[in-house]
């Protein structure tokens, strides 16, 4: 926030995305400001190369109880 644009926040919506200006409520005495949750950003998942790396390199170091949840066989 700046003094030139009070209540306006500049943010990124993702890696490599352009900046976006969002107006946020500024609290004033006696004024109720409703709370609004931010938009949910879905994860893109791991690339095939990353899945293979985790399976081949990292999985051998995990306990049997954790290896399937942490480093499953790469998706086909």
UniProtKB/TrEMBL annotation:
<protein>
    <submittedName>
        <fullName>Uncharacterized protein</fullName>
    </submittedName>
</protein>
